[in-house]
Amino acid sequence: MIMTKLQKAILKTLAYADVFEYPLTLTEIHRFLISETKNVRRNTQEEIRKELNKNPYLVSHISYHDDFYFLKGREKIVVLREKREKWSQSKLKIAQKVTQWLKLIPFIKMVAVTGNLAMKNADGNDDIDLLVVASKNRLWLARLLTVLIVELVANRRHPQDKEVKDKICLNMFLDENHLQIPPNEQDLYSTHEVCQLKPLWQKDNFYQKFLEVNQWIKKFLPNWKN
């Protein structure tokens, strides 16, 4: 059966989310719809809904339950998403507590959560990934002070740790003048990392500046907007 570009995009979007055991609502399918062409066209939610409900191929490969769409035979990820949302809430409280200390460092511009936690899809045993943006020419000093503070007020993840539950992983530091993801890393995975990032604290609307220099994400997710 020959599929349209939109039908392929819908299936690809749900398949990508399935890798992370994450069922999607109609709104989320629309928001994270993966582009299938360089000549990007934004599709509407209604167009997507019609395909999901009426296209025989999609109906035979996609299931629906409790407002979530997912691949056939993957019903269990709906319950898993609900569990992970609860686990994520407790982890976000830890991240917010740490951020209250980090914002005291005068040359930190933004602190954000990344990865699964940013989507409230963290497993109970997961760590807490943080991204920190520092002022111009203050990256290494910001990194040093951030590490010291996290060591004092929380459990920081170390490379040799086998048990990482609820530990703070300082997995990315950026300079305010180097916010764009390098061209060789501008792929679908990095696109999701940028779009899913959730700021916990920022100065001078810095999150918007981060998005403005990473507009390449529209090549992969044309419908996405913050």
Written description of the protein model:
This protein has two domains: 5-74, Arc Repressor Mutant, subunit A; 83-219, 2-Layer Sandwich (Beta Polymerase, domain 2), CATH 3.30.460.10. Helix content is 44%, strand content 15%. The protein is built from nine helices and six strands; from the N terminus they run ααααββαβαβαβαβα. The longest helix has 27 residues, at 76-102. The mean pLDDT is 93.
Total discrete domains: 2
The percent range for strand residues is 15-25%
What is the assigned CATH homologous superfamily of the largest domain? Answer: Beta Polymerase, domain 2
**Count the strands?**
6
Number of helices: 9
Helix content: 40-55%
CATH topology of the largest domain: Beta Polymerase, domain 2
Shape: globular
Mean pLDDT: 93
The biggest sheet, with number of strands, parallel, antiparallel or mixed sense and barrel status, is: 4 strands, mixed
The termini sit apart by 36 Å
Q: Order of strands side by side in the largest beta sheet?
A: 5-4-3-6
Estimated radius of gyration = 19 Å
**What is the multimeric organization of the chains shown?**
single chain
Query: Which runs of at least 5 residues are low in confidence (pLDDT < 50)?
Result: none
Instruction: Please give the CATH class of the largest domain.
Output: Alpha Beta
* Secondary structure category: alpha+beta
